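EI: anyone free to look at a 178-residue chain?
SC: sure, send it
EI:
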Amino acid sequence: MMRDCYILQVMTGREAYYITHAYNYLGKDRENLHLFVPRREMTIRRKGKRLVTRKPIFPGYVFWECDEPEEQIQWRLKRTPGFIRFLRRESGVLSPISAADRKLITHLITGGDICGASQVTFDRDNRIVALSGPLKGYEGSIIKVDRRKQRAQVKFLLNDKTFLIYFEYREIRQADMQ
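SC: here you go
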């Protein structure tokens, strides 16, 4: 049986801080607590140097995977510093994310919590074709490609909210593929 996944909104930029405090605050009740933040790795240039950074794909959101969202754990998560709210509360009851949202999250964290660069090529019409990585299967959602920086902007829909996210890619030329 697949565990359910819930979304917590926390202070943007404080996701890792929130997770650390939530685990400390829960103490022995951690066994039903798996909090994670899908992140992406990006290479940026600052002052002529290349730096690898890791940023959340969905800033301000922490995902909670569990079998059953116990009231006591929900109460403690609410009391953890940085908590804003649970998303998808219907009639006062916490609801798991939709199957489409679950599929998206599962796709993004397939290789671990950190998404690396996708391997891509360009077809005859100059359209991007993802061979592997987080862009694979989402070519139709790509709205912008920056070939100089090797980044593609993708439009995702999570919890009925649109996110425009940049992912890094590595271009593989036809000669490299043989």
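EI: The radius of gyration is 18 Å.
SC: 👍
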